[in-house]
Amino acid sequence: MDRESESLKPYVEIRICRHPPASKESPSESVYRLDYYEGMTLHRALEEIYRKLDPTLAFRPYRCNKGICMSCLVSVDRKRRQSCTTFLRPGDRILVEPEKEHSPIRDLVTAFE
């Protein structure tokens, strides 16, 4: 496949607010571009980022896929969402942050208080 046809593939761009563990450092942002596929959820995108692009990304890997357990709760474009039930669309460019109601431990992992 040549570069031109490669650039025409549908993709999603995910910006992740990274919180350093137990540190006074300010959060940073990492940007990832993934090939889009039908039925892609945010949680599956996070898993793909972890497996293929950045094994340092911290997020809760468990998912019930039913929107019940709430372990995958994050903020998507400043709105509270469950990553296992948040479906992505081709061309999406989203900001993912730790869920705001709980203190961040590292990256997208928060403390359940």
Quick synopsis:
By secondary structure, this protein is an alpha+beta fold. The chain has 2 helices and 7 strands.
Q: Your description of this structure?
A:
- It is a single chain.
- The protein is α+β, with helices and mostly antiparallel strands.
- It has one domain: Roll (Ubiquitin-like (UB roll)).
- It is built from 2 helices and 7 strands, in the order αββαβββββ.
- It has a 5-stranded mixed beta sheet with strand order 2-1-5-3-4, with helices on one face. The chain has a two-stranded antiparallel ribbon with strand order 6-7.
- The longest helix is centred in the middle third of the chain and has 12 residues.
- The protein is globular.
